[in-house]
Amino acid sequence: MSQNTSGFNTRFVHAGQEFEPHTGAVVPPVHFSTTYAQEGIGKLRNGYEYGRGTNPTRDSLQVQLAAAEGGTHAFSFSSGLAGEDSMIRALLRPGDHIVLGNDAYGGSFRLIDRVLGPWGIGNTPVDMSDDTALAAAIEKNNAKMVWLETPSNPLMKIVDIARVAELTHAHGALLVVDNTFASPFLQQPLALGADVVVHSTTKYIGGHSDVIGGAIIVKDDDLAEKIGFLQFAVGAVSGPLDAFLTTRGLKTLGVRMRAHQENAAQVAQWLRGRKEVDAVLYPGFEDHPGHEIAKKQMSGFGGMVSVQFTGGAAVARQVAESTRLFQLAESLGGIESLMNYPSEMTHASVKGTELEVPDNLLRLSVGIEDVQDLIGDLEQAFAKL
Ligand code: PLP
Q1: Is 105 assigned a catalytic role?
Q2: Dihedral angle at the C-alpha atoms of 363, 162, 205, 151, nearest 10 degrees?
Q3: Same domain, 75 and 213
Q4: 140 catalytically annotated
Q5: Which atom in ligand 1 lies closest to the alpha carbon of residue 346?
Q6: Assuming Cys at both sites, which of 77, 171, 299, 369 could form a disulfide with 138, CB separation 3.0 to 4.6 Å?
Q7: Which of 236, 251, 266 is the last residue of a domain?
Q8: What is the pTM of this model?
Q9: Over the stretch 193-208, which tens digit does the pLDDT of each residue have?
Q10: How many folded domains does the chain comprise?
């Protein structure tokens, strides 16, 4: 079976998941061994030498991730940010420059600005939907990398990946797309021209809020060699149990995403009708500025909804602290619904910068519970206002 030409769900379930030949076990075992017995000095069994470099459980996840994103190589890391760090250091050098969206995830910006900045990597945040500003920022800084998140976290802005890829490549730079919010089920950035796909697999790919992880996926041998070297040389790899849990999550990505987005569409619609609500940021609405692009480059609108309140921060905080099923917690993409107040939680680190998130905004990660229960939960929270 050619895994990259099969349907998504077939790839998610089967890629890298061949049965174990010794017993026929349909679920490949989790390999905890840190080292591998050699047949003679330097005579490795199937290339296995030491767990930081290779581990069969991590390998099978990496095959599955590459197939899921239509890439040729995937690298699994201990967190999304660990993957981003290794990938950037693999592909850039001190003196190089990154142009990134001015609504990028706060943790990615903190890494790029406050960790990699002092090591000599510059950055310029821009509005990614403004071609002129993007081109000017790339040219002025001779940028080597453009960093795009779409839908963005938490403002749910949508940017045309194919258009940004064309513009980026015209300037000789690499396009990195963080595909965490959409997941490979809904969006395939490599097919749209991106060079590198980044995931926090902690989110929709793992899907159960029980494992932190990250992935980098590419379709080019040269990029793969550089990233693979840093994965091995730095060693921020995922452990065997983490890799197994992530693999198990990815197998059900398709069915979960369908349930997430059906619920999100109804929650967004309900929120839109409330007098306390100033704006609902959800690309499924026809009047969302990115709706047509989302329709073109995504196969659905995802499970995330952000909402802004007319009554400001006080009302947003009160709702966040009044829901029962929507748990007040960081993160997203798990089967359970979560509510996040970005300006004090996930995006607190970008306060006072260009990436600051409005303080009247809540971000909802809509889970797969029965939607009438989720709406009932919001109703009781709004009734307290
Ligand atoms: N990218 C996005 C869009 C995220 O939301 C996150 C985490 O929230 C990350 C990257 C970082 O991933 P991790 O928390 O697994 O390091």
Answers
A1: yes
A2: 0
A3: yes
A4: no
A5: 8
A6: 171
A7: 251
A8: 0.96
A9: 999 999 999 999 999 9
A10: 2
